[in-house]
Amino acid sequence: MKKIKGKDIFEKVYLAVEKASFSLEQPIKQLINGAKEKEKNPLGKKILDVIIKNLEIAQDKHLPVCQDTGMVVVFFEIGSDTCIEFQNFATLQQIVDEAVRKAYKDFHLRKSIVSIPERKNTQDNTPVVLWCENVPGDQFRFSLMIKGFGSENTTHLKMFNPTVSIAEIMKFAVDCVRKAGPNPCPPVFVGLGMGGTAEKAVWLSKCALLDIGKPKDSKTENFEQQLISSINNLGIGPGGLGGSITCLDARIRTYPTHIAGYPVAVSISCWAHRMHMEIL
Fold first, then answer.
1. CB 3.0–4.6 Å: which of 57, 193, 246, 275 could bond 236 by disulfide?
2. What is the pTM of this model?
3. Which residues, including other chains, have CB under 8 Å from residue 40's CB and lie 6 or more apart?
């Protein structure tokens, strides 16, 4: 059985916060650079130039990619043949929270998390939103996403009638982006979750955002491309000031659902799609 030490998880999460805060993954940067070549609106091109320059400065000077330093979401995939040695930690949540707490302090990142209902700042950007999935084998990996709320506030869930068509679902997803307009800081990334229960559909839409930059699944690739094209036809453009590139990429995840329903959720991420994956 593979053994993972709590202190190693702590260190990896800490470093993942740093990497995601000050630079974007290479596939994300490539999509942004590619958008500049495709954008037809001169103002849109100028905005993309500013975004690219912003990324260069952030990485060179170790400055946050975005002033909204976000809420941290961590997705763990834990193999059945893996054992976590917690040592001085009580839970996985504690490990992650302490790593994020230290990272936000050490890297001077803005603390944005408040308690509910008091709305009092927790002063350390915790707690983290934590998801755990059990998988076969001895693998242990996690994906960390830093989610700004300009885009998070545009998340939508709809419980469709089971007779809904794919065309109607696509229209719903496109309408979500249309209603969001400039608020999620386009050009955006879109995650579409279909199936399960209400909360499962939203989770799927978030997981779909983790697929950005990875090879596409042949089962969903055509629908994803249709979605990208339809969103780009909205003309919202970079910064919401008009243009041909509103969506940089879209991904879909599905799950079986009850015969009487069809949950669908849409999650949107801004151009500063901050994520990082680690394997232990």
1. 246
2. 0.94
3. 243, 244
